[in-house]
Structure formats: structure tokens, C-alpha cells
Amino acid sequence: MIITPSSRRLRIFGGISVFATVAAYIHMRATWPQTPFDYARDYYATVTSYFNEPMYNNTLYTDGNQDFIHRYYNSSHPCEAFPGTDGILLVMKTGATEAFDRMPTHLLTTLSCLPDFLIFSDMEQQIGPYHVYDVLAEFEESAKAHNNDFDLYRDQKECPVSQKACVDAKTDRQKAWNLDKYKFLPMMEQTWRMRPGRDWYIFGEADTYVFWSNIVQWLRKESKLNPREKIFLGSRSFIGPTAFAHGGSGYILSGTLLKHLIQENPGVVNQYNVRGAHECCGDLLLAQAIQEYEGVKMRQAWPMINGEKPSTLPYGPHHWCEPILTMHHMNAEEISRVWQFEQTRKTDRTILIKDLYDSLVAPKMRVSREDWDNLSDDVCYINPDPSAQQQAEGYLRDRQKAEHEMNDVEKEAWKSSENCAKVCASLDIPDKDEWDEDEVTSRQYDSPTTTTSTSTSRNASPSNVAKRQDWELSRLEKRLNRSCFQYRYHKGVCCTAKSFKLGTPKPAPDSDNSMEKWRSGWYLKGINDWIDAMGECREPAWKTPEL
């Protein structure tokens, strides 16, 4: 075949073009790491990950918590870092009126990593592949028949459709509460029968969240407790003089205690089933039975076993460097968010209460919010007028500060939300740049003709350095002992708090009366000063259970 000059030129041109393209690619590829378009490569990496493992934007990631949680959420191995739970059994208590609202989220998150657990309710049900046992099925019929507390139990069984259609969880809440107290002792009996021989039994409710990495570490190592002893752990509550482990916070029985309570005392369940008609709460009944039959008192594990959740925890003294084991009042969305936090945090060290604040609460803190209750109620300021005092709630009147102890700002705090906001600021302490001891010392010892270098030398004298150190220590102590972090104003009542909490929304008032509106505020400078003064938690502040 004859190659014409024009064809030859085209081939040469084509070769040169290919060579130039390859050379340009090599050159550009070498410079990519130096380009400012890092976000593009990150985005490309996340897109390609969809073809390999599930990777999503972490919806918890926001301004303020970038140092604590990852920007992306890899959900392909949720149980990879989950601790081994051999010898530890979780038992969850729920009710037919709430089971399908609360339990599915548990089953999709923490429970999905447990090899075994039990769910008890007041009705036998099935949630997907998971069975819910009726803990009251063996309750004596004669005891049920003439007890109005079992009206809901009977109504649930007669419902021909879903419980949601037959029973209104809100209107029947008191009925569900009345029925709930009868579940505790039968739950002990059935748990031992179905799953005997465990070292530890952790009991929680449908709104209880368990931090498994922490609780396993504590039970096996940090607590120094022996499950062969009779041990009852929880967060202490009182009804009258009687102390008991709060059920919603979660509580723990050693296998030895559970075994002895059930096997050696066959009449305990029936006896306390009858007694239930005369008591308010099942967790109280359980504590009474353990005390009466085993002589064992509950050991306090608060604040690690806790009755609050991230938005209501009182961050500050006693709620900072302590590890968190359980939380209470968690709805389905909150359970999912805390699970997501556990899955995406940047460290595998022990989860402290401080970590919940840094990752979940701090980014949401503001100077103020309307239609919001941040739960401030430690110290209150109420209009001294007798009629205003009478209208205020009794527990708020009990928390008033004595007038002779108030400063001028506090005496005016009840008049408006703006006045209330000034209380925390009035208790403030100076910043470092407000230190003037050097200047005072210079004025005392330096003549008008003293040079700057001489003044500087005298200011750095040993006595002056000591004064500065004493001032710094005093300032640090005042920051750590701060007693006012936030305020709440409603109906002419100003209250402040000795801790800082996010709180909860309140409905806007129907009227235009500004006094009806809930207003909350946070003294962010004081909060941040306290956090800075605390510094990093060097070691987790594990609590030794106390009687």
C-alpha cells in the first residue's frame, strides 16, 4: 500500500498528540497532591466507596465537633469494636403499648451486636425475628381477677388488631405504669430459669441506653467486684426512707445474688406480687425483696449509671471525667444518635460524660433560646410581692436565695429575662489580661525617672512572681468553683443552675403575654472558662460502688 505524504503527516501529528497528552497527564498527576482542591479528592473517595462499602456523610458532624467524630460514617462493620460479653446478659423490660415504638431501634443498634438477650413485656409479641415474652403469664389468676391494675393487661389480649389501634399509650400511660410494677420480681424468676449461670445480669427498660464498651470494662476490671458475691448495683433513688435502684437508669445483679434470691426463696415472687397492689413502683419492690430475703443493699454507681440523657445531663462538677455506663429517657432518635456517636468517634478510649458534651451538646449551645427550658432550677429569684410568691411553684420558692445574700444584680433578676441573664455575669472573675498587680507594684516602688528596663526587672522579682502565681491559683480555683452557668426565665421567676444543660423545647404561649414565654440562656464564657480550668481528663474517674 502506498502511503501518501498527507497520511504520513497525519500519523506523525497523531503520535505527537498522544505523546503530549501522556506527558501532560504524568505532569499533572505529579502535581495533584499540591493542588488546593483537596475537597474534590475527598468527595471522589466517598463516591467510589459506594461501590465497595457503605459510606455516608456523618449527620452528627458539624461545626464544633470536628475534633471528636469522623466526617463520614462507615456502617459496614457495626460490631467490629463491640466488646465480648460472655457471662453478661442484658434483660430489657417493655410494655405492649410501647414495644413497637421503642424496641426496633435497639434491635438495629446495640442489640444487633449482642449474642444473646431477653425482652420481657406485659404481652407476648414478635418483632421481626425477635420474641418478646409475657412476664406476667404465670401471675396467679386469682390475684389478677380482682385487681384493677390488670385492666390494661386484659384489654391488650382482647384487641383484635394492632395494639396501637386499641390502646392509646398517652391516655393509658397511668394504666401502663400501674401494670409495670408487677413485672420486676417475675422477671427475675424467668430470667434465671431461661438463662441461668451468668456472672452479671444487666436490667434495663425500653428507654435505657447501655454503653457496652464501658460497662464490660467496668464489671470485669475497674470495679474490682466479684460476681461470686451477692451484689446489687444501680443509681440510688428514695421513696421516703427506702433506697432502691432506679429501674429506668438500669441496674445490675450478680449471678450469685439472682440465683440465691430465686432458688433459695421460692415464695418471694408470689409474696411481692400481692404486695405490689400497695406500693407505687416495681423497682422499689425489688429492692425491698432483696433486702428482706438476702440482706443485700444496693450499691451506688451514680453518675456512671445515670437517669439522664445527653440533652439533660447536668454537665459540670460530678458529671465530666466520669465514664458513662447507662442513660435513661432515650427516645428512638436519641438512641440512634448516641449509637452513631459511638460508631464514628475518633478514639476508642473510655467514653466519658465530657465526650457526650463535646460531640453532641456543645455545638448546639447558644447565648439564648426562646420557647426553651434549659432546666435551670438550683437558685431562684422571685418577685418578693406576697401574691407573686404564692403563684410560684413550691419547689421554686424553696430554692430562693436569701435577700441579704444577694448582690444588686440578683435583687433585680426577677424583673425580666434580660435582668435574669446578668446574674451569671455578675459572678464573673477577671481574665488573664486584666492582671494589674505588676502595674500596682511598679507604682509603689518605681520613681518617675525609673527606666522601662528597671521597671521590668522589678516586676519580675521573686516576690512579684509569687504574687502572680497566687493570683493565678486563686483565679483557677474560682473558675472551677463557678456556681452559675445558665438561667431560665418564666412567669416572672428567674432561676440559675450550677451546671450546664441543653434542655428541651417548650410550646410557644397562646397569648402575647411575654411573661408566659419560656426563655433560657447560657453564660458561654463561664462555661468555657470552667472547661479550660478543668483541662483534659487525665484518667477516667471510675466510681467505686458505695453502700
Tell me what you see in this structure.
This protein is an alpha+beta fold and 547 residues long. It has two domains: 44-364, Spore Coat Polysaccharide Biosynthesis Protein SpsA, Chain A, CATH 3.90.550; 368-427 and 482-534, no CATH class. It is built from 22 helices and 21 strands. Strands 5-6-4-3-7-12-9-13 form an eight-stranded mixed beta sheet. A hairpin with a 2-residue loop joins strand 10 (236-239) and strand 11. The longest helix has 27 residues, at 5-31. It starts with a helix and ends in a 13-residue tail after the last helix.
Return Rg in Å. 31 Å
Flag low-confidence runs: 30-50, 439-458
Share of helix among residues?
A: 40-55%
Q: Kindly report the spatial arrangement of strands forming the biggest sheet.
A: 5-6-4-3-7-12-9-13
Tally of DSSP helical segments: 22
Mean pLDDT: 87
Main pleated-sheet profile: 8 strands, mixed
Structural class by helix and strand composition: alpha+beta
Number of E-type strands? 21
CATH C-level class of the largest domain is Alpha Beta
CATH topology of the largest domain: Spore Coat Polysaccharide Biosynthesis Protein SpsA, Chain A
Q: In what range is the share of β-strand residues?
A: 5-15%
- The span between the termini is 103 Å
Give the domain tally: 2
Shape: globular
Which architecture of the largest domain per CATH?
Answer: Alpha-Beta Complex
